[in-house]
Amino acid sequence: MRKHYIDNLRWLILLILIPYHTAQAWNTWGEPNYIFFEGNRLISSFIVFFSPFFMPLLFVLAGIGTKYALQKRTIKEYLAERVRRLLIPFLYGTLLLTPVMSYIADKFHHSYSGGFISHYGVFFTKFTDLTGADGGFSVGQFWFVLYLFVISILSVSGLSLLKNRAVNTDEKMNREADEKPEKSVSLWLIFIFGLPLPMLSDLLSIGGKSLAQYLYLFLLGYLVFSDERIISKLEKYAGIWISFGLVAAVLNVYLFLWADGTYELLNDVAKYLSEWVMVLALLGLAKRYLNFHGPVSEYMKKRSFLFFTYHFIWVVVIQYFLYGIVGNQTFILFAGTVLLAYLMTFLCCEISIRIPVLCFLTGVKKG
User: What is the pTM of this model?
Assistant: First the structure.
């Protein structure tokens, strides 16, 4: 049976990306961005609230999805699919989409006067911080696709040795989950699984994105959260998890952006608590409220990866041109970018899903 709550939670989380990446133009901590206006604590609060947990949640969901995918595919079929669904879209995005964002960043920050085609020479020869904000090389949001590809290959190859045992015990585990979905599952044990996250955050980290941490989260999805007993436990106590998680997330925002004084240790505790507890809470709430299938969910499921692929380029393009029209009008810049970016991104999704070559390049099936 397809777990519809996984699909629904994934596309709902991805919808956050447009306001999230729009808000980066006002971050108060000096993070390089393709477009930057001025620091704004209120807008930055949106980033700080969501940033601890929405990417970890996507890797957990990817791990869960992989477990179910391998029940229907051989490992060879799965790995071939990863090439089609991840590696090819990564190359497409890096070679054709992020150069546009890097070109606009160079024009915005450094008044680059050359044409877009000539800027390809800059893009492929200027390697600095890899953000693209200086006009140099960047993979943009496609770092997620690359990480997911590498993690999928490493994880599935390593776990293939346990495949026979896992397949043989799946039916037994599912029967036990139906008969006693909560027995032998401890809330404390589930919580403890998140304790290694702070220790992994700087391990194999590129640009603040830890390959080790995301690998661990993927494996938790595959090995732990694909177990319906654990998801049922999260669902039962979802109210507790979300209350605790929201308190930690709000405290993280306050300590990082609004508090007078420095509370680094307490801030780190709040950040990692919000990261892990919100992942648990959203999994439980999704199982309770999002395990349905209908026209909207089917529409979004088919277009969620296209949305991810095209959203950022429209955020950058619209911010650049809107700034040239309205100047430094914060509300208009933010609201206008969000609304227009949603419109143009979904328009791109509708065009792309109908053209076979674009479906191939973006890793989706023709709609």
Answer: 0.92
